[in-house]
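Fill in residues.
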């Protein structure tokens, strides 16, 4: 057992000996782990980033967090490209890990890997759009089409009995309903409102109808104006 341990230590010292070099002035250069950056950021939606390293001895790297992967995680002396990767950060908070590159006899190097949190998607603003804000119909009545485009469920209502709707509610998307006005038998024009509402949105359509014609049976004869434009009655001699 002692022989194996001695052999291992001798091997490491020999490797370190060969890793040590001198510059042109004869100054001893202590081997170090060289990397091109000490901080990297992985996108919130996930992905990977790379770090280039030059390591003079056999090495290994510890990711520093369960959410972070490093490939390769160990290797022989020489140049290497480390790939740091992570899935989307859906934790709601930014996170950070300290990945450490180690090689026996050398000072370890730490790479700080950060990843922002994904933004929480905001619900769309409730919206209802109508194909018309005003509708007009003759006294005889008739049908009119109204197209509703919305991103929320909606309801339609009207507070008069002379207007009817083919559909009183709907889901998000585009719907077309028919607004029907009954005949106006009154001699005055009339107006009412169709209300389309959903969530916090309220839209209205004003429906106007022309006045109806007076019924001749309702017009009195006595005291009326004659064909000559003179008031009064007409007498006959016997």
């Amino acid at each position: 057992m002692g022989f194996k341990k001695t052999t291992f230590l001798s091997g490491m010292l020999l490797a370190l000996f060969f890793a040590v070099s001198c510059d042109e002035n004869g100054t001893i250069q202590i081997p170090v782990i060289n990397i091109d950056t000490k901080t990297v950021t992985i996108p919130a939606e996930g992905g990977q980033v790379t770090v280039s390293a030059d390591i003079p001895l056999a090495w290994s790297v510890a990711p520093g967090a369960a959410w972070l992967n490093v490939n390769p995680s160990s290797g022989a002396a020489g140049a290497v490209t480390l790939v740091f990767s992570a899935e989307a950060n859906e934790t709601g908070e930014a996170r950070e890990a300290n990945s450490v590159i180690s090689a026996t006899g050398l000072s370890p190097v730490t790479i700080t890997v950060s990843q922002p949190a994904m933004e929480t998607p905001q619900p769309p603003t409730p919206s209802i759009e109508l194909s018309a804000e005003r509708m007009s119909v003759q006294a005889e009545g008739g049908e009119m089409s109204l197209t509703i485009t919305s991103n929320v469920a909606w309801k339609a209502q009207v507070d008069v009995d002379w207007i009817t709707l083919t559909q009183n509610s709907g889901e998000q998307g585009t719907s077309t309903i028919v607004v029907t006005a009954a005949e106006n038998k009154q001699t005055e024009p009339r107006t009412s409102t169709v209300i389309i509402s959903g969530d916090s949105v309220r839209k209205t359509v004003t429906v106007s109808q022309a006045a109806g014609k007076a019924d001749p049976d309702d017009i009195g004869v006595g005291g009326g104006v004659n064909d000559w434009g003179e008031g009064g009655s007409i007498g006959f001699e016997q």
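Confidence is low (pLDDT under 50) at residues 1-10, 13-18, 221-238.
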